[in-house]
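Recall the central idea of this unit: under ordinary conditions, the amino acid sequence of a chain determines the structure it adopts. In this exercise we apply that idea directly, starting from the sequence alone.
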Amino acid sequence: MGKREQVDPRERIIRAAVQLLASAGRDAVSTRAVCAAAHVQTPTIYRHFGDMRGLLDAAVSRCFENYLQAKRTRPREPDPVNDLRRGWDLHVEFGLTNPGVYALLYGDPRSDNRPAAVREGDAILRGLVERIAKAGRLRVDVDRAVQMIHSACRGVALTLISTPVAERDRGLSTATREAILSVLTTDASPPEDGEDDLRARRAVALKAVLGESPALTRAETALLSDWLDRLSGRSSTSVTVI
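Accordingly, the structure predicted from this sequence is:
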């Protein structure tokens, strides 16, 4: 039996799409080109992936896998803020190394049905932010911090990707990262904070571990979560980055 028959059609299709994407970009991943490379008929693609968008999602998720594996297994740094810095740098570096894949993952945003790779990447980011919150060093709610970091980091990567290599300012990533972290986090040994700021940070830290306790009912947890949001200023405080 030949090598082609030893690989199931779905896997052959994904491999073909990945190869076309890596070698010639998004426009090369056409139904005809994938069918020819994978030795399948058009209905086979739609049976396994629904449509070409589903196939592209599967292909970019495969390309994203090595990056995700590196983020899953890398040793955690003792300082959770430095750990987040490292995660930011890895994300931007992936984008610059794999611009076509990154543009498909993050340059065509959808409010629903995000690729599996994007969902896992978001979960890893949330874990990094929760570490900072549990250390009592996050100034805002975890959800707000995740949204701000994701928006800023993705924006930097896409900006650098769209800039000719010779004109790229690699310092842009570091400068943006530090601006965001200065707003969202405190130092490991912060100076004396005002009473309101200290109370807000403690509320954020408590909410970050709230779901880990079985002592409260679901209704009690929801009520306490709402109170902590009020104490942290989530419902009334906006954060501005200049």
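The chain has twelve helices and no strands.
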